[in-house]
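Thread: sanity check for a docking pose with NAP

Original post by kr_44:
Hi all, I'm comparing my docking run against an independent structure prediction. Below are the sequence and the ligand SMILES. Could someone generate the full complex and paste the structure tokens? I mainly care about where the ligand ends up relative to the chain.
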Amino acid sequence: MTIFEGSTALVTGATSGIGYAIAIELARQGAEVVVHGRNAERGAKAVQDIENVGGRARFIAADLSEADDVRRLAAEAGEVDILINNAGIYGFAPTVETDDADFDAHFGTNVRAPYILVQKLVPAMIERGHGNVVNISTVAADKPAAGAGIYGASKAALDLLTKLWADEFGEAGIRVNAVSPGPVETEGSAELGDIVEGLGRTRALQRVGQADEIAKAVAFVASPAASYINGVVLPVDGGSRAERPAA
Ligand SMILES: NC(=O)c1ccc[n+]([C@@H]2O[C@H](COP(=O)([O-])OP(=O)(O)OC[C@H]3O[C@@H](n4cnc5c(N)ncnc54)[C@H](OP(=O)(O)O)[C@@H]3O)[C@@H](O)[C@H]2O)c1
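Reply from moderator J.T.:
Ran it for you. Here is the predicted complex with NAP included:
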């Protein structure tokens, strides 16, 4: 498939999990992919995997918790037609155990980094007359998940910005949307132990999602098939269960 032929996509956090699956999917559909992460070894593997499916990719390392490093990433990425703000961190801790460093890490990586990338990359999309942005959110941004307060709050901020940017850049033809996954099996979520499996049982489909199920939704939202979809936060979460009496 060559839906994205001639387009360059920057996928942040593409060395693992959902971002890796998005990078592979966009490359399969013809995009040249800028794979971003911190770990150069995992970056080289992602690039190799993309080349193995006939795609084109290059890796840029940057720490998204550092504002200047995010600006360097934007400069080194060059012309980007599709920006996927996927990289994110999700610590689970009660509010009284969340320190300033946790707070700053979540807001720096999950909110400020996408903010800077949009600031730096969207003006050139506007000049070229095309482009779009997909932000990766979470169901915990909409409905609080126990222990995920600062994580959910950071992604709720990203949802708000998604809707704002859809308006701010819509006039120029640039679409901005979010995809909001439920619990997904990834390298990162595996570190949470049983939490993700348990969250899977809260979904109507009664299971966790797979990274490629999220990637397919992201590719659709980024594609011309979604040309009139702008400013939405699309749940890809197995569905919510109906309210029922407590057992
Ligand atoms: N998995 C889930 O259940 C789930 C559910 C809803 C939403 N999400 C969202 O989906 C996104 C991806 O989640 P995932 O589970 O696929 O995560 P993951 O397996 O932990 O991968 C995270 C990716 O982000 C990169 N990253 C993290 N912090 C970074 C930093 N400070 N600077 C640069 N890169 C950084 C990592 O790169 P390196 O390791 O190379 O540094 C890695 O490529 C996140 O935004 C997350 O909030 C996940």
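Helices lie at 17-28, 40-52, 67-77, 100-128, 149-170, 187-190, 195-200, 211-222. Hope that helps with the comparison, let us know if your pose agrees.
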